[in-house]
Amino acid sequence: MMRKVIDSDFFNESHSDGLAGFDGVFTHEIRRRIHTRRCKLGLSYSVLAKFFGLNWSTIRKWENGPTKACASYYVKKIIRFLKGEFDQQLLEKKHFMKNRIYKPRMPDIVAQCSERLANTYILCRKQPKLRQKLVENVVQVTNRVLENLADRNLHAVEKIEEDIF
Prior knowledge:
165 residues, mainly alpha, 2 domains
């Protein structure tokens, strides 16, 4: 795979930030800095991913592995992100995402699981039997959870009625 050459002036400007050698290969230090910056700004994987035009799991893989390098297209943008040049834009995007009319009221982990499920469903498009089995399993699990919650609530209501009467 050929990498596009990044202009050296940009690297020279980045030298004082410790980013001079970043050519798209994710070292432990670069991964840590991406994670720290995202968390410092209070951004979810999804918000940062939308900013870069990527899937949330790509950002997670940049931070945690297994992705070893990014396309050269992203190198300058990552450096600028790490320098804080996009902070205002990202905070505005975060604010917009939090104030959407159809704001999902669920923890990030639930949203991430939902997105992972949707991606798995899409990946199975050429395997309809596997896709159907995935849907059946999800329906079965969610029904079991709901039944369990309903049973607990019923028992809780019965307990309250016993205590009252």
